[in-house]
Design goal:
This protein has 231 residues and is of the alpha+beta class. Helices cover 17% and strands 23% of the residues. The protein is built from seven helices and eight strands; from the N terminus they run H-H-E-E-H-E-E-E-H-H-H-H-E-E-E. Strands 1, 2, 3, 4, 5, 6, 7 and 8 form an eight-stranded antiparallel sheet that branches. Strand 1 and strand 2 form a beta hairpin. Helix 4 packs across helix 6. The radius of gyration is 16 Å and the shape is globular. The termini are far apart.
Amino acid sequence: MPRSKAPSTPAEIHPLPRAFFARDTRRVARQLLGKILIRQLPALRLTARIVEVEAYLGTEDPAAHSAAGPTLRNAVLFGPPGHAYIYFIYGNHDCLNVSCEPEGKAGGVLFRALEPISGIEEMARSRGIELRGPQDWPKLTAGPGRLCQAFGITRAHDNDRDLTSQESGLWIGDDAWRPRHIAVTPRIGITKAADMPLRYFIAGNRFVSATTKIPVSIPAGLKPFRRKDDD
């Protein structure tokens, strides 16, 4: 399926404002597709385009970590929007989410896959793999655990990190590129609310982590988030 060609990424991509995340989680999830996840290391910068996400709808969603209300573990989801919520799963994988909705109303978007842009050799070192060429790049960031390992993201060091601040060293930016087609399916690997169509990905992108579920819809083009000072 065709998609628009992504431009090369400029050296400076400013973080998305907190207001971007203080909205309905489903809307945030869709509009995160095509945005850039950035990690600043001492000697280089890792960047990758967000190509697959899942939305979790807080206390109204049985599959969400926040379904039963706030706890010490999930407190980030009930806090300010735009913060990293990271959980450890299967004893060996960290998973990155970003908090959404206004503070006090939980919501989160899980990052399922990224398309690497820069810092690829460093990502491979972090993953402990050798790359034969671009055909192997999906091994770096196609999957929630893989992308966290590639970016060096862990619950111990990055939980509650402010993803709207460049000073945090880990943030989400916008280079004005937009995907042409977005596919929607049920979420993957859950048993509760398993039929809710809350997984979003860039249709046709080879970095998407799984293609086992048939898309239920491809929405029309999305309107980009606009800052108030853009008017």
